[in-house]
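Summary for the lay section of the report: proteins are chains of building blocks that fold into shapes. Here we show the chain for 6-phosphofructokinase and then a coded description of the shape we predicted for it.
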Amino acid sequence: NLRRGRSLLVVTNDNQYTLSSTPPEAEQTETQREASRPLHARGGRPVRKLSFRRPPSGVAAASCREMLGMTRLASSVGSQNFGFGGAFYGQPHLSRDLSSSSAFPVHQREQRARTHLHSADLFDRTSPVQKARQAWTCTLPAALDADAHTLVSGPPLDAKVKEAFEAGPLAQPPEVQKKLEALFPATWGFEYTEVAPGPVEVDGGEGSRQRVVTRIGIVLSGGPAPGGHNVIAGLHDFVKSRHPDSVVFGFMGGLDGVINKKYKVLTDELMNQYRNQGGFDMLWSGRGKVNGEEDLRKAKEVCESLELHGLVLVGGDGSNSNAALLAEFMQVHLPSCAVVGVPKTIDGDLKSPLIEASFGFDTAAKTYSELIGNLCTDINSSQTTYHFVRVMGRSASHLVLECAMQTRPNLVFIGEEVDAANMCLADIVKQTADLVIERLHAGKRYGIILLPEGLIEFIPEMKVLIKELNEVLSANDGKFSPDKLTRARSVWDYLPDMIQDQLMMDREATGYIQVAKIATERLLILLLETELQKRGYDPDQWSFMPHYFGYEGRCAMPSNFDANYCYSLGYTAGVLAEKGKNGYMSIVRNLDQHPSLWTPAGVPFTKMMYVKQDAQGKDFPAIVRSLVSLDGSLFKVFCEVRDKWKLKDLYRVPGPIQFAGVTADEPCYAVMVPSAEDLLAGNDPRANLTCTTGVVEKDLGTYSSLQQQRLLYRPTVPPLCQDAKARARPSKQMFCRDPYTQRQVLMHYPYLSNSSLFFLHDVCHDKYIPPIGFGVRIGLVFISRQSPGVANVLWGLHERLKLVQGKCIAFFGLNGLVDRKFLQIEDRHLELFKNQGGCELIGRSTSHCLGSREMQEKVRQTCEAMNLDGLVIPGSAFAMSEAALLSEYFLAKQCRTSVIGIPATGSNNLSGELIETCIGFDSSTKVYASLIGNVLTDAASMPKYWHFVRLMGRQPSHEVLECALQTHPNFVIIAEEYGAADKTLLHVVQDIADVVCQRAEMGRNFGTVLIPDALLMHLPNMKILLAELRSVLKEADAKGEMKKAQ
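The coded shape description reads as follows.
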């Protein structure tokens, strides 16, 4: 009953799944519910969303129901996050099965049955999220969800298909057709065909389907992509539907597994473990290819020995080109075995009029867009940083274009446009510098810049440089001198020294330059800093930060779109193989429709190919690789809006991939091309809510569907927080266990110690006090890095003060606190910031300075002048230390303002006996754990990589420890452990090497290592080195020689 994720499962105490009853909140009246909803949700204002075009009434109605919202939960070994959001009233609600304890208060029921859907147990390879996804059932197109199938080809097909072969990238000139016919005489001339429901074949006069045993092999080739396991699942379910004795053979490690006859027989039990899971780790992938007729002969012998009716090859343009060669050979020597291809690549470079999307693209784009959206929120909160983001996609810029439309950055480089405009590297740097300076004049020292992984290879002059470098290195036995460059010397001299060294050191085994390893984002930053200096600007006034998003997206758990798409592709491949359609690629069209209305089809390899020439001038066939079309509708609508993105901060936060709810089935923009209004603030007059009073201007029209959905969520709070007569009362004393620390506290905080007497305070109901605190005025200021959830701190403070008729004063950072720049919070100010990331309404401080007496006095004057009863300071351990100093100063000066601290930091460096966790730690570690889980799956899918992951955490290793418990990597470094053992960096390297060697002996040349950001700061010998380096830099700075010292 888990069709399309309508049912939401949870884990009970006995590790079973259950769907709980409607929550108690559902008993509220309609009036109460309406009053609790935000303004933009009332009066029929809809939540803007982009979703599939729905089928007509009565068609797949069960597949079209709205599903409950789900938010992110962390991944386990190799999984994308899967989470549960707030349930809407009147719909089933996720929680543990607490029916047996319903008489207990809410907080006691939560203690009796703690929900931990977050990750797998420490010795379990599958998280509850993965288990729930394993049970999720994909939706088949109506043409496939039939008892029998037939193939339709010829004139009845629509004109769009005919046009695809006569114009555009699939059009083949007569001379190309002639060459292809010579290369593929046996498979040339096949026609495009579509799958349709067919008449049920009868057996023995009965109306049952004829039962035919089918034996099909499948190969995963090339880099992993989300949804590969669902291709296998679709094929497996198809052959089992034909006969229970049908078999799917999974060849291990790509085409090499076929040639060497390494395979596993797929059982129902094995298949069920991998349904809707990310990665290729079920069969592994490989980059083997057909190297001559000997490989073709071996593959044919293996297929013949296993009596295969078909061989399905899943891969990109190169893998499907190999499939075409196999199909040609099989057509002559083993016609009973049909070779069928399936288009796979997250780069999107198989896109064509017939292949509307390659599988994995949707999930990868959404994974990267989530991270870019988080960076957009980060810069809106701090307004101090430029993020340069390089997105995977070496051969084409489809991914970076999709991510740009999802997040609306300030500047985007499209490789194909750079090539067509014949732009040089200096042009790109100049364009970037123009943007940075223009935004500086607008008062904005922050921004987001996106560039594709293969940007360098699109720059014409860089192509010349790389070609000449390879020629020089080849002619001089790997030795290089810049003087030998004749055509590209000026480009070489323009490159920073670091990039020159990288080009020379990171070379392939053949000696050629590894262009893909050039960190383009770092290159652009270095050149930008030089350009700004040339223009008379000090680059130190900006902060530039590089990012590369690549392997994190290749093995994410597939989105609903990719899960359905891949399942349909696998099912279609089975139909084509059963019908003997050798030399065809399985495709699914009309992807902008509901999945039940998709059109499964097959297109001959030879109609998707063109003829290339190798280095020796010899012709060879290859599947057409599609680049971003500069005349396409998607690029044109992007050109309409990108100039508006430059100065207007129209950032959009897509959020994590959802598996249920109103946002779960949204396809990517590459499938459903948006309008220019969709990429700006929209044009719906009913959703024109804006906020112009904060540090950034926000418009509801720029919000993603998930952001808008989160605005409607009302967090659950303890009942005492809603009690107007609740007050904090002393409960018990708690002293420092260490006598020395206790003495230091008494010495440095005498007033604070005397005032509190080290009493803890509990919030309780006090029936003797009046419920209204007239004139209560509480201020709030963020003085640390923003952490997820701090916006709700401001919301919660406002709600509490509104309950007692008080006022909430929000200051714009420490400078706002000193200069008395503030916002007196009203309901309308918070409408667009509830349950959102960052602190975009009032911003945060960029420095800590409350330790100085001068600053403390200025803050005291502000508090007294504004008659503040309290000042709330959310922040990290350092911020809490500053809050303690400020409180001590206030008491010494007899200032009546109470200072209250709130532990808010993703580093969780305030956790302890009294503080179980800090605000933001849960959300941030779930984001990290999701990416690490994806990387773990990637390592297991192509077992040849070791991934070293460095996690944020300047002081403690809490993030690393939590993510390790979530994802179970192969080696985890806890900095405090090595520091306490007085170990050196050499010990760290030796420990990692031991694990690598041990796994190599087991035949596992892959793995993942987690490293805390502040590892070196905990190693005693490195502390000494860092102290000396700081001393050298300080001395150089005093002499004005900092640049030279650096």
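Put simply, here is one thing we learned. The two ends are 63 Å apart (CA to CA).
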